[in-house]
Amino acid sequence: RAKAAGRGTWRLFEPEMDTEIQKRRQAEIDLRRAIAEEQFEVHYQPLIEARGGVLTGFEALLRWHHPERGMISPAEFIPLAEEIGLIRAIGAWVLRKACADAAGWPGHVRIAINLSPVQFVNGHLVQEVEQALASAGLAASRLELEITESVLLQDNDATLGVLHRLHDLGVRISMDDFGTGYSSLSYLRRFPFDKIKIDQSFVRNLGGEKGSIEIIRAVVGLGKALGMNVLAEGVETAEQRGILEVEGCDELQGYLFSQPRPVRDVPAIIAAHPMARDAAARGPLLVV
Ligand code: C2E
Ligand code: MG
Ligand code: MG
Ligand code: MG
């Protein structure tokens, strides 16, 4: 009886699997071609200090211009690239490109780059980061690497070892999308993150869904207690900004300030925000 049920199930899914497999094969071919033909582009979104609006850096966000399908979201193609192992090549390219771009920006502007958990497995991540910094001529202190909790799900000494070696280079490590995984708190104990990025789902519900403000408050308290910077993602409205500033978030990021933009727009975004220098110069004026 079990056998019959099994065969029935198999038949039921067969045609669907065919198209799924075909779609995947095509996507795989397209992705490989995308690397060869340089169809990728890195866009940059500013990170802003909550108090004073000083620009501290940019997050690098990958874009794929598909020749037929147009712009494809990383949320769609990164999981596939991870599955078929192409994320290593793509990730290495993003590291080199974003570090090279950032080397042309003012010295206090940092670059934040997302890493996939796959880049931590059997790879050469530390060497890749070192090489990207060296060939760009970028100081390690200007680089932030963003990881999600899924990196620490591969809870092994190798992963922690890589994180520590990256940190020892002088690179900052951020915990991205905080609050969306499970047992987030225990992860914070396992590695001394420099920054926590509160996931945009909590920011989106500010002023709406009950409890979001309490979660923000708790994460800010936690970050302060552990000596970590706290950034809120997905800030779209002045109201959200106001609440996040009052709650003591250190940094903000979102469409309110800017969408992710191509590299040529970066100088204008930098020019539109006060610099750390300007803020320091303004300091005494603010006190008076
Ligand atoms: P993430 O690292 O959490 O990046 C933030 C995402 O939120 C970006 O989506 C950004 O465009 C979006 N965002 C920023 N401000 C707002 C806002 O105010 N409202 C809303 N609704 N969204 C906002 P994006 O660019 O589509 O990237 C999605 C995810 O793809 C990223 O989430 C990251 O996990 C991944 N990703 C992007 N680039 C890379 C990359 O180079 N390597 C790897 N491994 N992952 C990447
Ligand atoms: Mg990120
Ligand atoms: Mg995020
Ligand atoms: Mg995300």
UniProtKB/TrEMBL annotation:
Protein name from the UniProt record: EAL domain-containing protein
Ranges where the EAL domain occurs: 24-274
Species lineage: Bacteria, Pseudomonadati, Pseudomonadota, Alphaproteobacteria, Acetobacterales
N-terminal signal peptide: none
Whole sequence portion shown: 363 to 650 of 670
Species this protein is from: Muricoccus nepalensis
Domain of life assignment: Bacteria
